[in-house]
Structures are given as C-alpha cells and as structure tokens.
Amino acid sequence: MKWLMVALIVGSTVLADLLQSFEMKRHVVSVEDLRPGRLPGMLHRLAHRGPLVLAVFFMAISFFAFMKLLSVADLSFAVPVTAASVALETVLARLVLREKVTALRWAGALAVACGVALLAM
Amino acid sequence: MPAGRIVVEERQLTSSAPHRVDLKTKLLTVFVVSTNVLGNFAMSWGLKHQAVDLGLSPLPYIRLIFTPWVMLGTTLLILWLLSRMTLLGWADLSYVLPVTSIAYVFSAVLGKVFFGEQVTWQRWLGTVFIVVGIIFVGLTAANTTKQEPAQ
User: Fold this and answer.
1) In angstroms, what separates the C-alpha of B4 from chain A's closest C-alpha?
2) CB atoms within 10 A of CB B41
3) Across A79-100, average pLDDT
C-alpha cells in the first residue's frame, strides 16, 4: 500500500507540474495580480484555463494519496520519497517544455535526486 | 584598463541581467517553501492526533479535512499551490523543482523535533546533497524560456 501510494503521488505530480508550467508560461501572472484586491479576479481567470483545471485534478489525486501515505508512514519518509519526481520532471522539462537545462542544472537536479533517495532510506 | 575592455564588460553585464534571479522571484520562492513546510507539518500533526482509519471511502478524508490542524494544513497547502503556480510562470520547472526542495530538509528537521522521528546519518547526508543541488541550480538562469512577467 505504501509504495502504491508513492507511485500514485509521483505519477500525478509529474503530470500536474508539466501542465501547470506549460499553462502558466502562456499567461504569466504579474506582481500586481497578487495584490489582495485583484486575487479573486486572478483566481477566476485561473479557474477557466483547462490545463490548470486538469493539473488541479491530478494534484487532488496526489493530495489524497499523500494523506493516505502520511497515515501509514513517517513524515520524514513520506515527504522526501515523493520527491522522486524531481529527476523525472527535469528530463521532461527538457524534452516537453523545451527548457535549457545546463550541465550545472543537471548536476543540481541529480544531487537533489540523490539527496532525496538518501532521505528516503 | 583599456576603454574597449570596459565596453565589453558592460555588455556582458547587460546581457546577463535578464538571467539574474530577481527579488520578487526569490521572495515568492521563500513563500512557496514556507507554506509547503508548514502546511505539511500541520497536516501531519492533525493526522497523527486523529484515530481515523483511512480506507478507500472518501468520507473519512472529507471528515478529516474539517478538523482544525488538517484545515490549517489544507489552507496553507492551497496558498502553496497558488503561489507555486505563479512561480512556475516566472521561472523554469527545472529551476523551481530543485530550489524548492529545501522544503524536504525543513520537513525532516520538523519531523525530528516535533514527532521524535529518527533522522539517521543517511538522511543528514541526503540533506547535504539536496543543499548542494539547490546551490548548483540556484547559480543557473531562472527562466530560459524567456517570458518575463508583466510589471
């Protein structure tokens, strides 16, 4: 059950992040939009963007699977192990989102992935 | 120093300016990390103090959401979600992911301090790897797909 939840969290997180990054780059939120008076309008606009709604759906799956995982595992296991998505998402960011992933960034992502693996031991 | 060299160096500084991580991106990153760590902590605290069997039925989950600590955790995680979405518009996914991974380190520390969870030497070594990785990624350009947020 524990590892099934981890797989569910990682899979849905990867899909949610790719969708969010793709859509938020198309319509960038400005600093002014973050002012309290403008937040409702911004939320309204976000709620009408299909890829973001789909991303939130995947995040909801990830959220409930995470709640289940927290009830059967330690916090210091549950949080780091779900970060297995970092390496996978860096590869997909390069291939799907066409981000320029330099050698330094690859090294950083690899170090983070190794760190996460060690934390999960 | 020859005048030509000064001009070249000024051009290099100017051309590297868009790649610098600006203050608002840094502040938003801190907010994203804080809401994530505190949200996960509140959720975990709430779940550890509830004797509820979480099966496949959605009802126990919904009931749990309305307990104080889980509600606080949920609120913080909603703020995390919205601020992270905004950050993903300002910076690359391959930048945001490693840089915000410092949250895992803080979560491990909170787990040890408040829940008495065992943090082995492997976990501390993992923490060092994560911090090094964050420093590496932090040295790269935040946004390589070149879509600056409107000011």
Assistant:
1) 30
2) 23
3) 81
Query: Residue B22: is its pLDDT beyond 70?
Result: yes
pLDDT in tens, A29-45: 777 777 777 777 777 88
- Asked whether the predicted pLDDT for residue A93 surpasses 50, the reply is yes
**CA quadruple A90, A94, A99, A103: dihedral sign:** positive
The ipTM (two decimal places) reads 0.77
DSSP code at position B41: H
DSSP, res B53: -
Contact with chain A for residue B122, Cβ under 8 A: yes
How is B80-113 classified by DSSP, letter by letter? Answer: HHHHHHHHHHHS-HHHHHHHTTHHHHHHHHHHHH
Q: Cβ of A1: how many Cβ atoms within 10 Å? A: 9
Cβ neighbours of residue A80 closer than 8 Å, sequence gap 6 or more: A116, A119, A120, B104, B107, B108, B123, B126
CB contact under 8 A, A116 and B89: no
List helix spans (H) across chain B.
3-16, 23-48, 58-65, 68-90, 93-99, 102-115, 121-138
Q: Which chain A residues are within 8 Å of B24, Cβ to Cβ?
A: 31
Helix axes B23-48, B102-115, angle to 10 degrees: 30
CB-nearest to A17 from B58, B93, B138 is: B93
CB pair distance less than 8 Å for B126 and A70: no
Contact B130 A111 (CB under 8 A): yes
A85 to chain B: closest CA residue: B97
| Contact assignment for A116 to B43 by CB distance below 8 Å | no
Q: How far apart are CA B84 and CA B29, in angstroms?
A: 8
